[in-house]
Every structure is written in structure tokens, then in C-alpha cells.
Amino acid sequence: MILMTDRPQMLTEDFEALARIGAREVEGLRLEFIDGKLGVKAVPDGDHDRIVLWLARLCMQHRPELWLHVERGLKVQEYRAGRARPDGSLAPDDAFVGQGEWADPAPVLMVVEVTSYDSDTDARDRSEKPRAYAQTGIPVYLLIDRQNCDVTVYSEPDGGRYESVRTVAFGKDVELPDPVGITLPTEPLKDWVR
Question: What does residue 90 show for φ and ψ, rounded to 5 degrees?
């Protein structure tokens, strides 16, 4: 059997149909389509949810005109052929009004992923998604890594990758650069890891 790595597993339209069916048939099933590959996103645990809510509160305190939209489906990658469902998308409050399940990422200032304790986290959150989000032109990608107990801030997308990558251990403050412009205190994250 020959594996074609330069071709997607399916067409984007076929993925969207599959995602709609899967969401109806299997509660909690969250599908993504990155680099032409179908991916299943782990159902979040309580600590994962707590981190996203904590971050949403911080963002609203510092930038009340923005919301951290949870699990908003975005069209990502070159030609918007990929489909991602970040844990959070920081954008104006009405950024996705009138859009379908997979929204235009243009108004997104930052996407957030909180790692899950599954075997795909390394490839998905640390490799595939930074590339997909950079190709899309999303200014900031925040990765809250519960396995490594650190936070990585990706910024300055050049169309293929992020030029700036900064990682700090939980407990240190980290700057979320413009256009976000928030200092993130990471000390509380220590309480929400295994």
C-alpha cells in the first residue's frame, strides 16, 4: 500500500459533512482537519475547563471589548482548507455573529490551546497547530502545556511559521504581545495540572 502524504485524506467539504454527522451521533465528539488529516480532539476534563474560564476572565478584565470564544470552529491554513477548533479564540464580541460552524479567522487576535493528556497532544498542539495558525495569519498562539508545566507564546506569523516563540514555566508572568497586550500571570496554572 502506498501512502500519499501530499494529498489530503478527504476534501474539506467531506470533512465538514462528517463533523456535522459526528457531532449529532456521538456526544462530545470534536473533529478537526489539519494538514489534510482528520483528527479527534479529546473531550476536556475539569481542570482544562477551569483554565479556559480563568483565561476568559483575565482577558475580559484587561480587554473588555474582546471575548474568549470557546471552541469556535475556524477555517485555517493556506486557502482556509483546514478546520480547527481551538480551546479559545480572542476576538471582538460580535466577531462570529451570522457565521456558520467554521468561521473566518480574520478578526481573531489570539488562539488558545490547553493540552490534554492524550497521545496526540505532541503532534497536534505543539507542531501542527502552530504551523496552521501561522499560515492563517493569527497574530498570537498561546499554548498552555499541562504536561510540561509551561506556557508558550507564539507571535509574529510570517505566513508559514511564527517568528517569535517564548516559553516560560508556570509561575512566571508572560507578555501576550500586541495586538493582545496582556501580561499573563501563570502562577494559578500550577493548581490545575496532574
Answer: -85, 115
* Nearest residue to 70 via CA among 78, 81, 59: 59
Instruction: Give me the helices (H) in 38-141, please.
Output: 46-62, 121-123, 129-136
Give dist(CA 37, CA 35) in Å, integer.
5
Choose among 34, 3, 9: nearest CA to 134.
34
Residue 15 within a domain:
no
pTM of the model: 0.83
Q: For residues 83 and 12, is the Cβ–Cβ distance under 8 A?
A: yes
Q: Is residue 151 part of a domain?
A: yes
Number of domains in the chain: 1
Q: What is the pLDDT of residues 13-51, one digit of tens each?
A: 666 666 665 554 455 567 666 776 766 666 778 899 999
Question: Cβ(83)–Cβ(32) under 8 Å?
Answer: yes
**Closest to 126 measured CA to CA, from 109, 150, 157:** 150
- Amino acid code (one letter) for 179: P
Cis amide leading into 92 (omega within 30): no
Q: What is the pLDDT of residues 53-82, one digit of tens each?
A: 999 999 999 999 999 999 999 999 876 678
Does residue 47 lie within any of the structural domains? yes
CATH number of the domain that residue 122 is part of: 3.90.1570.10
Residue 94, domain extent = 43-192
